[in-house]
Amino acid sequence: MPQSNELALSLAKLCADQTPANLPAFVETLNTLSPGPVFHHALTRGGWYRPGGVVSADGERVADSIGEWAEREAEGDVLRLLARYADDGLLATRLDGQTHYFVARLGEGPAEFLQLEVEELREVVDRPLVIPGWIPDNLGEFLDPFEYPRLEPRSVGNGHYQFRRLFDAAGLLGELETRHGSDLPVVRFVADWKSSSAGENAPLCEHWILALRDAVDRYGDTRLSVRPIPMDTDVPRLRLSEPSRGTQLANQIHAFDRSAGYPFAWYFWMLGSRRVPHELAAAVHRDLMGAFDYLPPRDLKVLGRWSAHPYCT
Q1: Is 76 left (phi over 0), alpha (psi -120 to 50) or beta?
Q2: In the chain, domain spans
């Protein structure tokens, strides 16, 4: 397998050379890069955007990046920018995006996989650059105003792929554990997967991806946030009814596991989503500490650790 930085450079070039058409074709091309890891499409998440560029009323390109252009043209004063371009009829664009996640298994451990993220971007006309009477408080509000008259999102050019990131999950989690300790939720999540019947039956990367983002903590410092996200979407929402115990509760969680496609799935969905309430896990634990026995010993041990020290991702 090529070194990850070499593979990342190859992937970035591949993304730049490909026109979005269909994901199976992209994956097929992706896996011709080297005889190394075999990627498969895991998940696509959309519904996000970022500021784009600046175009004239007839679609001629003025700037690729509205942020860099505005900072340069404003010269530290957003009012100067508004006055300079008030009558030019320029339009701001936005990049409508979706992120495609691909994974490639490297070994038997739950975190032994590569994760590739590729953005699919489509630039559309978003709004007039300046409207009469509108005075933003700062450059940030100018770049991405909250309330502003929007235009019909007409496409500007063709859609394109953009390489986002490639990382080794085991290496990333190892660094996080060294830095923040084994109680970090995502580290506990992966350890629980390895210890449970879920990990005995399926690799983590068949059912979950790791979503990375920069988050600001309570001290104002930026730190990397890593959160497991399920690939499966067609699973029921579990609810805790009264009374809910014994056979009824066992049937609920086992039906959920069958829907998700692996054992003990309800527990990991409880940690990583709102589909399963924490109260249900507490009810299962109470059952198993009493007269009922419907979980394997290894899963009961994981659930017992969570009951003594609850967490969620």
Answers
A1: left
A2: 4-167, 181-313
